[in-house]
Design a protein that fits this description.
- It is a single chain.
- By secondary structure, the protein is α+β, with helices and mostly antiparallel strands.
- Among the domains are: 60 residues, no CATH class; 57 residues, no CATH class.
- Helix content is 39%, strand content 17%.
- It has a four-stranded antiparallel sheet with strand order 1-4-5-6, with no helix packed on it. Strands 2-3 form a two-stranded antiparallel ribbon.
- The radius of gyration is 26 Å and the shape is elongated.
- The C terminus is likely disordered.
């Protein structure tokens, strides 16, 4: 029996589906903005891809046997690369890839993940290591099943917030993009502690 694997499509109960009769007589449902539906079929060592276009055209492609490994490598690169979508910090991107690798090695292929799901996690790990005295591995295990909302709540907790702020301030000051605001303000004669001023400042349009 063929093992059919369909490309994951975001499911929303409110999304309207439009049925389209394909050139071979089959009917495929498309979202309003969808141009193409891709379906993979795995049967033994044979892997084929069906491409259904919204205009009713259909194309089928069977991967040549001597190119399956190359296609597999391309797909793995794509899936692993997608794991860092939305992550602005390199340390968070590494954590996201580590999480995906662990799930794939456990046999989980369809993995729900929102962009930026690991944002701030690397700093949170450092803070938890400092606060708890536990090692990084233990903290990663602790956070493994925590939602992004739970991670944000931990970052804002009274115990961790001061540590988080100190770590982020140190990180910002060490960044090559750090801006010397004292120097900038010095150009306006505002170096040092600002002297108290009376009255209100007005800015003409």
């Amino acid at each position: 029996m063929a093992d059919t694997v369909e490309a994951p499509v975001a499911k929303k109960s409110t999304v309207e589906k439009v049925p389209v009769t394909m050139s071979d007589g089959s009917v495929v449902e498309f979202n309003k903005k969808q141009k193409l539906v891709k379906t993979s079929n795995i049967e033994g060592d044979s892997v084929s891809i069906r491409l259904d276009f919204v205009n009713g055209e259909t194309r089928n492609f069977t991967i040549p046997g001597d190119m399956i490994a190359r296609f597999a490598a391309h797909g793995a690169e794509q899936k692993l690369g997608d794991a860092i979508a939305g992550e602005t910090e390199i340390a968070d991107a590494v954590l996201s890839v580590d999480d995906l690798l662990g799930r794939l090695n456990a046999g989980e292929w369809t993995i729900t993940r929102s962009a930026g799901a690991f944002a701030g996690t690397s700093i949170l790990i450092q803070a938890l290591v400092e606060a708890s005295g536990k090692d990084v591995a233990a903290i990663k295990d602790f956070l493994a099943n925590k939602t992004q909302a739970e991670k944000l709540a931990l970052r804002r907790s009274e115990k961790l917030k001061p540590i988080i702020e100190r770590l982020e301030a140190a990180k910002a000051s060490n960044s090559k993009n750090a801006v010397d605001t004292d120097s900038l303000l010095g150009e306006l004669g505002l170096g040092g502690d600002p002297a108290p001023r009376k009255g209100k400042a007005t800015v003409d349009a």
